[in-house]
Amino acid sequence: MSSDLADSLRVVAPDAGELERAAEAALRPKRLSEFVGQRTVRDQLQLVLDAARGRGTPSDHVLLAGPPGLGKTTLAMIIAAEMGTSLRLTSGPAIQHAGDLASILSGLQEGDVLFIDEIHRLARTAEEMLYLAMEDFRVDVVVGKGPGATSIPLTLPPFTVVGATTRSGLLPAPLRDRFGFTAHLEFYETDELESVVTRSASLLGAPLDRRAAHEIASRSRGTPRIANRLLRRVVDFAQVRGTGELTLDAARGALDLFEVDASGLDRLDRAVLEAVCARFAGGPVGLTTLAVTVGEEAETVETVAEPYLVREGFLVRTTRGRAATPKAWAHLGLTPPQDGALFA
């Protein structure tokens, strides 16, 4: 067989990450009326969009803040769909120079929605260009270098910027003030996540038992993205090791297999708690030392495991490091020290 023929017959397996993102995208609501949870944000955003449509103008710029996985990207897509316009997606880290942003802005059509994820990570030069673009729909393009450089003003059609950030405190005040509507997304309640996974299961063509929906929701850390990911693993488990029905037993079997316990803690979470309690007598222990003990990078422990452990009351931050709470000891089935050393 010739090499050309072999190349033509070669089947390239889809990237696992692409398949996961495609599955996630298929479960996203397309309209605001389909979006579950965040009732206050939905009502406020609906008013903003209705008013803009009534005026026949693009919506005000929108800033969406909150932890990962709560629906910021989904809301940006919904805004574009509700306004009947196109959506352009980019991210702060991808825009390293003002020229990168100028190229994106010059390609926008009237009414388009520009979604900038992790907007707090924009380069300073691009950030300053965005100020002018958002306020006056104009950018100044510099041609040439040195004394001969010339600034050419470029008029932009009216458009809407939707910015998303997981760390709103890092967003410069001049940029934050240019958004007409700012929303902070909160973690979901268990009953809201039940609605999320029930809807997603229906879209997947796999009706979900009510008790199974509750089991998945209660272990999803208040986050729809995690709930949908766990649901897909339950579907896999039911197909391979069960009867194909998404029952409570299938849900528990799948979640136990993937090491997600009844409180939503995964392998890394439990490793962190066990290290603090068993290796360091409940703490306090420094982040770097803790990370080395569990075999992870300090940033991973700080950004992936710690926020949930602190929020749920398993871990506290002290001036001397991280310390376990009585709830952590009880969760691990261990007896806390009796010398009053907790939180020392």
Question: Which helices and strands occur, and which strands form pairs?
Answer:
Blueprint: H1 3-9, H2 16-26, H3 39-55, E1 62-65, H4 72-83, E2 87-91, H5 98-106, E3 113-117, H6 124-136, E4 138-143, E5 150-155, E6 160-165, H7 173-176, E7 181-184, H8 190-203, H9 210-218, H10 224-241, H11 248-257, H12 267-279, H13 287-294, H14 298-311, E8 315-318, E9 321-324, H15 326-332
Parallel strand pairs: 1-6, 1-7, 2-3, 3-6
Antiparallel strand pairs: 4-5, 8-9
Calculate the terminal CA-CA distance, rounded to whole Å: 73 Å
- Widest beta sheet: strand line-up: 2-3-6-1-7
Which strand-content bin applies to the residues?
5-15%
Structural class: alpha/beta
Low-pLDDT parts are 1-13
**Average pLDDT across residues?**
85
Kindly describe this structure:
It is a single chain. Helix 8 packs across helix 9. This protein is of the alpha/beta class. The N terminus is likely disordered. The radius of gyration is 24 Å and the shape is globular. The chain contains 15 helices and nine strands. The strands form three sheets. The protein has a five-stranded parallel β-sheet with strand order 2-3-6-1-7, covered by helices on one side. The protein has a two-stranded antiparallel sheet with strand order 4-5. Strands 8-9 form a two-stranded antiparallel ribbon. The termini are far apart.
